[in-house]
Amino acid sequence: MSPVLAGLYIDGKWRSGDEQLPVINPSTEERLAIVTGGDARAVDDAVHAARAAFGGWSQTTGAARAMILRRIAEGVAARRERLIELQSSNNGKPGFEAAIDVDDVIATFNYYADLAEASDGQQDRAVQLPVEDFTARLRREPCGVVGLIVPWNFPMVTTAWKLAPALAAGCCVLLKPSEVTPLAELELAQIIAASGVPAGVFNVVCGTGVSVGASLSAHPGIAKVSFTGSNAVGVQVMQRAAETVKGVSLELGGKSSLLVMADADLDLAVDLASGGGYFNAGQMCSATSRVLVAQEILEPFLERLVAKARSIKVAGPGNEDAEMGPLVNQAQYRRVVAHIEAGKDSGARLLCGGVRPADQPRGYFLTPAIFTNVPLDSALWREEIFGPVLCVRGFSSQAEAIALANDTQFGLVASVVSRDLDAAERIANALEAGMVWINAPQVIFPQASWGGYKQSSLGRELGPWGLQAFQEIKHVVRAV
Ligand code: NAD
């Protein structure tokens, strides 16, 4: 019998919703728990509680909020092993990947604690005016009650990137986790509940997108929605939010490139291609799923990449040797398999992978796939697959590589591999992407921004930009 967990934390109290949401272990297809989900009424209750708490919370000092954020970071660190286990069982990630997520959450809360503390000294800064008969000061104030909607691929991380800056800014929060992976966030909610945050400041309503996400996006008591998820849903969130002219931040999909220049260290390039394509079983908005390789090294590169892909141990987190886990659920598994089949039909050549591993009869496992000869107008090349599928293509000039990389509706990230660092920096400048890594894996720091160009994002998370996303700007001008 799987446990039934209360999925609503409103005004400092846990309660159950009417909807029963089964939570599945993607490695075994067994049910881990049932989480009860809320509806429009629960959203309304949470918004009322948050609005009531806003008056007090918004007036606290940055130092007081920093203390709570640091306590949350300490609480996460204290429950590190439990959070790793929950993420692995609910999402399928190998333990080492889940550990990276948990450590990122700790770093994010500590970083925004520092920014909250520093904000006290920056409030009411004088603004230089061109005349002497007026003075002006600048205030940054929390924008109000904010709704945070997050996906299943990096559940805790995407939550922390929104929640830590929102609380640091002095906003009250309504969080809606993904109905697919709510377990780690419910544990995080318990940590936050024990951190001393006043009732109503932080609320959680688990539930489906249709019943909770949609009503949250439209609720007139919410000042801003910060959403991470698919483009299709992001557009709906923006449309609903438009009715009450609420602020919207969107972190959406990607179809990013890794550019391997002719002088690249081949082993490094293969490692980065594999990491960029297969980390989290390729279920990454930042997956560098289009690998562009200088024609003169294409053959040896492909040979090594195929060998690498074939060597990856695909297994559940229970297996110590696991290097890549399953896809998150059956729907995602079917979606990715359909993309692979359509890719083959489009004339693309599958070099390896894309099938269920022989030793995994259950679970949503797929072996790492590599395609070449992918038509530029095919879905395989243009759409986000969100699975362990790499498309590799040769290029004959730097200009062609940049043009291919930029020829997409997305613009989240890119990677460049080259021994010529000056050339790599110039290429980075020419790429339409919010984050470019040179000869580096996809390292992410709370201090650097996260977000992309074009249809990948609206706004930026992390860094000071992540905090500003939850602040209003006020100027007070006075006659002398
Ligand atoms: P999704 O869009 O299906 O769901 C995301 C969240 O929105 C979930 O909590 C879901 O319940 C909710 N939702 C669904 N319908 C809704 C509606 N009508 N109104 C409001 N909320 C609704 O995305 P997913 O499948 O959970 O996640 C995968 C997607 O997330 C991919 O496209 C990926 O690229 C994207 N993503 C982007 C980033 C980034 O930083 N850019 C990071 C992680 C994931």
Annotation, overall tally of beta strands: 21
Low-confidence stretches: none
- The largest beta-sheet arranges its strands as 3-2-10-9-8-11-12-20
Average pLDDT metric: 98
Oligomer: single chain
Give the overall shape, derived from the CA principal axes.
globular
DSSP strand content: 15-25%
**Distinct ligand kinds:** nicotinamide-adenine-dinucleotide
Q: Give the number of helices.
A: 15
What structural class results from the helix and strand content?
Answer: alpha/beta
The main sheet comes to: 8 strands, mixed
Terminal-residue CA separation: 72 Å
Give the helix level as a range of percent.
40-55%
Radius of gyration based on Cα positions:
23 Å
List the helices and strands and how they pair.
Layout: E1 4-5, E2 8-10, E3 13-15, E4 19-24, E5 31-37, H1 40-57, H2 62-78, H3 80-91, H4 95-122, E6 125-126, E7 134-142, E8 145-149, H5 155-169, E9 172-176, H6 183-193, E10 202-205, H7 209-218, E11 224-228, H8 231-242, E12 247-251, E13 257-260, H9 266-278, E14 290-294, H10 298-311, H11 330-345, E15 349-352, E16 369-372, H12 379-382, E17 389-395, H13 398-406, E18 413-417, H14 421-430, E19 435-438, E20 457-458, H15 463-468, E21 471-479
Parallel strand pairs: 1-5, 8-9, 8-11, 9-10, 11-12, 13-14, 13-18, 14-17, 16-17, 18-19
Antiparallel strand pairs: 2-3, 2-10, 4-5, 6-7, 7-21, 12-20, 15-16
Helix pairs in contact: 1-7, 2-4, 2-5, 3-4, 3-6, 4-5, 7-8, 9-10
Residues 149-154, 158, 176, 178-179, 208-210, 213-214, 217, 228-230, 233, 236-237, 251-254, 285, 384, 386, 412, 456-457 line the site of nicotinamide-adenine-dinucleotide (NAD).
